Amino acid sequence: MDILDGPERDADAERVVDFESEEAPVLPEQTRDDTERGWGERGDTNDDRLYEDRPPHWG
After folding, report:
1. Where is the composition biased (Basic and acidic residues) (predicted)?
2. Cβ 54 vs Cβ 47: under 8 Å
3. Are 36 and 43 contacting, i.e. CB atoms less than 8 angstroms apart?
C-alpha cells in the first residue's frame, strides 16, 4: 500500500476552527524553560542586602 493511495477527502480541510474561542490557549506565551528558573538561576537576589551594607561614604 502506498501513502499516496489514501482517501480522497481530507478531514482536516473540512474541520471548523473557532478563532474567537474563550478556552485557554494551546501553547503558553512563555515556557518553563524560558524563565530564570529554567536557566538554573535563582529567583531571589541579595540586592537589598547589598544596598543596606553600603559604606557610609558612598552616600
Report:
1. 1-18, 30-59
2. no
3. yes
